[in-house]
Amino acid sequence: MKEQAASSNELAQYTQQLTQLINDLEHTLGEFQIKNEKTGKHKLCKKGGH
Fold first, then answer.
1. pLDDT tens-digit readout, 8-23
2. Are the CB atoms for 42 and 35 separated by under 8 Å?
């Protein structure tokens, strides 16, 4: 029973860490946008940049 509780706590910690990583990634990706160049190609660019 103690092992199961420890495993559940460990899983909860990993889930919390994964959620934080996802939030960080979403924030970072929010700083970028896809621009349509004259060539019709798409390019990932930092917002406000060229």
1. 999 999 999 999 999 9
2. yes
